[in-house]
Design goal:
- By secondary structure, the protein is an alpha/beta fold.
- Helix 3 packs across helix 4.
- It is a single-pass type II membrane protein.
- Keywords: Glycosyltransferase, Golgi apparatus, Membrane, Signal-anchor, Transferase, Transmembrane, Transmembrane helix.
- One of its GO terms (molecular function) is hexosyltransferase activity.
Length: 349
């Protein structure tokens, strides 16, 4: 979100409202425009604000095995501030400008919506206004919905997450934890963390030293690919946004490792490029090229697309595979069984 808001501030800073929405969200734009004119513009007169489904204060997840783990040094508080449900929300231009002025006052962590609409919004005194009547989860629209002056209230936006009613903070934190865990299991990107640590120490640090750099990305490389120019395609890129014929070398997005100094270097160049809808291409390809970040090939040695064999290649007595992704399995149980196989892998003789 930081890069997107930086881009907005540079190229369209006069926008009255800015909307953040996931790619699996459906928005009725004429109806959205109606309710902005009818309601949000009036509420905006009160000051900088975000509009959407507001989550009450919830607890940070402190389990290092969880995808949404937040260490104490990144967020020492016991409860997150109020923040916007991340599938879709919008803010007025004053809110975006204010939070971007305060980004250096907060430690970044891996939950953008909480960071920008919670932590930074608190620092910048940006209001979070509940518009939950206009948002609906899980595409569960009724044949008839509540209207006002002939315009439906409840069908303005459809988002994939079920947005529940008010609950106690403890319950909310537990439900959020379970929801995020389910999402992690749903997408099936399985990582064996202990084995990952082993190969970082045994191999990746050595590769950095040999390349005489501290700027590195390790993963499954994608090379010799071209932009999609078909406007009907989800990943369409216009020549205005990306005029080159070929993409740079970049990393498959299901899993890769980046050094901390590489991330710092990449962030220094975010205002120099057009934002593209392929984030992994943007970060590990386009921006990496500008800062000479080395992309190390992990390939199917360490990152496997597919299904494990009973025995896999080992080095130093350790299986070299630690990451599985995009497996077309039918259930969470199947993913758990596959993780068990990953954990208990035996070496080829």
């Amino acid at each position: 979100m930081g890069a997107a808001y930086q881009w907005q501030q540079k190229f369209c800073s006069n926008a009255e409202f800015v909307m953040k929405t996931d790619d699996d969200t459906i928005v009725d734009l004429p109806r959205l425009e109606f309710w902005i004119d009818k309601k949000a513009k009036k509420d905006s007169k009160k000051g900088p604000a975000f509009f959407g489904v507001v989550y009450g204060k919830s607890k940070p997840i402190r389990d290092p095995r969880n995808k949404w783990y937040v260490p104490y040094e990144h967020f020492p508080g016991n409860l997150f501030p109020r923040y916007m449900q991340g599938a879709s929300y919008f803010g007025n231009g004053k809110a975006i400008k204010l939070i971007m002025q305060h980004t250096k006052e907060a430690i970044g962590f891996n939950m953008d919506d909480i960071l920008f609409t919670g932590t930074l919004a608190e620092i910048a005194n940006v209001s979070r206004i509940d518009y939950s009547v206009h948002f609906r989860g899980q595409f569960n629209l009724q044949k008839e919905e509540k209207c006002e002056e002939g315009h439906p209230l409840g069908k303005n936006m459809l988002v994939r997450f079920v947005v529940g009613g008010p609950v106690k903070d403890e319950e909310h934190g537990e439900k959020l934890d379970k929801m995020l865990t389910r999402e992690e299991e749903q997408y099936g990107d399985l990582v064996h963390l202990n084995r990952l640590d082993f190969w970082i120490e045994k191999k990746f640090r050595k590769q950095l030293k040999e390349a005489k750099t501290e700027l590195g990305v390790f993963g499954y490389s994608i090379i010799n690919t071209q932009p999609v120019r078909d406007e009907k395609d989800k990943w369409f890129l216009s020549k205005k946004v990306y005029p080159q014929k070929d993409f740079p070398h970049y990393m498959h997005g299901s899993g890769y490792i980046v050094t901390g100094k590489a991330i710092t270097a990449l962030m220094q160049h975010t205002l120099e490029v057009h934002a593209v809808p392929l984030e992994d291409l943007l970060w590990s390809g386009i921006l990496a090229e500008r800062e000479n970040v080395v992309r190390f090939e992990g390939g199917n040695d360490h990152f496997l697309e597919g299904t494990l064999e009973e025995k896999e290649i080992c080095e130093y007595g350790k299986p070299i595979i630690f990451c599985l992704y995009q497996m077309a399995l039918s259930s969470i149980k199947a993913y758990k069984e596959e993780y068990k196989k990953l954990h208990e892998l035996k070496c080829q003789e």
